[in-house]
Amino acid sequence: xELQNKATALWSNFFNVKMVxxxxxxxxxxxxxxxxFAWFGIAPLMSVVRDELQLTKNQIGWAIxxxxxxxVFARFFIGWLCDRIGPxxxxxxxxxxxxxxxxxxxxxxxxxSFLLFRVLIGAIGASFVITQYHTTVMFAPxxxxxxxxxxxxxxxxxxxxxQFVMPLLFSVFVVxxxxxxxxxxxxxxxxxxxxxxxxxxxxxxLTQDAPDGNFDDLRSQNRMQxxxxxxxxxxxxxxxxxxxxLFVMYGACFGIELTVNNVAALYFxxxxxxxxxxxxxxxxxxxxxxxxxxxxxxxxxxxxGSLWGLKGRAFWLFxxxxxxxxxxxxxxxxxxxxxxxxxxxxxxxxxxxxxxxxYSVVPFVNKKALGAVAGVVGAGGNAGAVLAGFxxxxxxxxxxxxxxxxxxxxxxxxxxxxxxxxxxxxDEERANFAAANIETLRRKAEKANADLQEGLVAISRKSxxxxxx
Length: 469
Prior knowledge:
By secondary structure, the chain is an all-alpha fold. It has 18 helices and no strands. It is globular, with a radius of gyration of 23 Å.
């Protein structure tokens, strides 16, 4: 059954944290930001780690693959868990338990121990699924695309911010406090782990599962599906070919972003002879596009949906991924920095818009198994990153690897034409979309009327002398 009282506006209520929908929105994007920061916190320090642990290029490739491999399985599981115990408890436990390997990587002494912690850290990448799940249950169809895209995009900013903050934090420990480089990168990761532990505590106390309460309470009132139905609905969702098409397509956008987050700093360090900090700043430009690019993807997804229904959302997804692939191929052929940097930014724009476009489609595939769809599609991003990671295991030149990925992404864009919806579902969602817009107008009218009444009262008080002019 459909959850009620979802927010029908995002930006007009943006700072109204008294609304549980907006408070949850801000907590969920910040929690994802923290997780993403921690997930890729070690990436901009890899040149230091490589020298200390004497890692080969092949071993670095395995570390890249390991960092995203476990997330595939974690995202499958976390989607089911959200449907069963709710996003609030799911996020709390993921943040608290995920903080342990983030801090623990500082105990690494060789490649095997480093790889183990790198793999375990990858589990916090499942936070994305909870972020998308939680905003989906909080926002109505007319704004769910932009709410999903913005929360995920601002969360993904962590992957960009970490590219320059971690080298600076590392420098503080080494230059400011006089620690050795071997100690400096370890202490930097301990700080990050402690932060996400605290965010986990905050998430439990500042959010709730749905607009009307937590899942346990709603189930006791028979206002949502019972726990016993979750697994059955999950399995039904796995039989839907559209879920697996979106799985592949998300691999073609988010999977590429994960790969670039892992290799960008080292790519610019090795191929363009930049310093560690400079390479981090250049690599950060890719992730920092998330501040608006993913939001644009979701916003245009909602607009295409208002004009052409669900098939309009799918077509917008095709456009984004097609241009992402073309831009990636162009970037791969840029061998001087003043050309490579703008190519990287354009490529980043379409990559992140494609991610927002994907999750403007996901909420409408199967509402009875939202966690399943969000989890499976999210896992596709990491599966794509795992496969892409093999190209960077000293097999071929990295610029050639980017070219091959661009070709694959371009071909994958055409899968969007196979994401189809029944006429009945198109009609239902058009009605839901219209109802959400009407509700938005009603609330605006109520606010305008209240403001007018308040103004009239103020004028009346001034005219009768009860209030000074």
